[in-house]
């Protein structure tokens, strides 16, 4: 042992070693979590997403259904959002006739010519804050994000279909390609980048508007103060966050 | 003491087996469950990033208007002001990323306009509607109505 390591060399070398390994460890944490795509400026704690639907503006064109299909690769015959046509005869609110040919994807051919009241109701996942679908999932594959969106973890979902039965609004389906539960994500990949949802972007009459309840500047606050709004099936106590303006009492 | 050890051998075996089982359980649990599981609730936080990794197909009207301000200006002064570009032109994020990668096709007005404006009893009464079959004698809509500002003489 002729070569003697000086104290100075030892300190520099060990310092470099510690620095490099800690940097590598930190980078590896991100690799493990698969965070490459995450937008760094988005803070999940600063948002609480909701949607406003104005049925009086819906013209049943099906643009939202087609946009959702294109944006989210929804298999044909399944719907993350769809439009229903209600026909209520005078003074028989208990028995509305409801149809939704191909989810409203191709529009609505004229069907009712005589009396009664006819209107369109767009539907999608209500992104309930207290959702039955989340409560029944046995593996934690469906959950409410801290910003109020109900999502499905495609890697954890077993395809047991409990959530599909639990949803009071019929918003879920089993994706035949992945064999996992599938549903509206409120375009989570878009809203976290500052864009609106595909359905709201494509709606020609602004019958659907994305809203952020935690943003004090969002017009939803003014809207909720000055309009009569309703959620679907309030008796289910799901704390749904899709608000319908002047909703007709016959809508289920 | 020797007698006790000999007699207790079956008990020790069980305890060792249980301990080995417990250690195996803890090791497997640690390996299988992500460290962040439970950070926000009973789910895997990285699943949010999985959903966010999906590519965007609709660029959004702000992206369109940053280049096509002339068309946007024309549209925004007419009755189609609140209709976003991709409501008619379809999803064009690829075009917004690289204009030469995807050149948008001009929509066929005979199909496009009727999607919204074909008369239907269920549509709101205030929404402009026509029975296309007896409105234009088969002429395409854009003979008279320019889609960006459909008012005649507008």
Number of separate structural domains of chain A: 2
Helix and strand composition category of chain B: mainly alpha
Supply the CATH architecture of the largest domain in chain A.
2-Layer Sandwich
* Most extensive contact: A-B, 58 and 43 residues
Principal-axes geometry of chain B comes out as rod-shaped
Helix content of chain B: 40-55%
Total number of beta strands of chain A: 11
How would you describe this structure to a colleague?
The complex is a heterodimer of chains A (252) and B (154). Chain A has 252 residues and is of the alpha+beta class. Chain A folds into two domains: 9-38; 46-130 and 182-245, Alpha-Beta Plaits (2-Layer Sandwich). Helices cover 25% and strands 18% of the residues of chain A. Chain A has seven helices and eleven strands. Chain A has helices at 7-33, 63-72, 132-136, 162-166, 188-191, 198-202, 220-226; strands at 49-53, 81-88, 97-99, 117-124, 142-144, 150-152, 173-174, 181-182, 208-212, 229-230, 242-245. The radius of gyration of chain A is 24 Å and the shape is elongated. In chain A, 41% of the residues are buried. Chain B has 154 residues and is mainly alpha-helical. Chain B has two domains: 2-52, no CATH class; 61-143, no CATH class. Chain B is built from eight helices and no strands. Chain B has helices spanning 2-7, 9-32, 46-52, 61-67, 69-76, 85-89, 93-97, 109-117. In chain B, α4 packs across α5. Chain B is rod-shaped. Chain B starts with a helix and ends in a 37-residue tail after the last helix. The mean pLDDT of chain B is 92. The interface between A and B is large, with 58 and 43 residues.
